[in-house]
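Appendix B. Chain record.
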Amino acid sequence: MAYERVCSLDEVNDDQGLAVTVGDHEIVIARNGDEVFALQNECSHAAVALSEGEVADCQIECWLHGSMFDLRTGKPTNLPATEPVATFPIEVRGTDVYVDTDTTLNGVTPA
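Structure tokens predicted for this chain:
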């Protein structure tokens, strides 16, 4: 696994994701309390950035049509999205956030 530093923990708000680029991957870093997650930054229903939506209750919302995705699994929790988004391994080291885009946690190939 090749973890790359993507941001500082204090850059990640509780209510909105942070868009980062890791190699060829557009990733959204999202926070739920003390937990931090990395997901593909593109809705599986409509190709829009999830980082522009709100984060609440361990979910991130696609601002365009209202689909919600579970931060832990990438699975949609309501329509219109029916396909999950890729989730990536993440580590917090001190105050730095690292992501590994060589593999996905849920087996979904990133868009």
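Further analysis of this model is presented in Appendix C.
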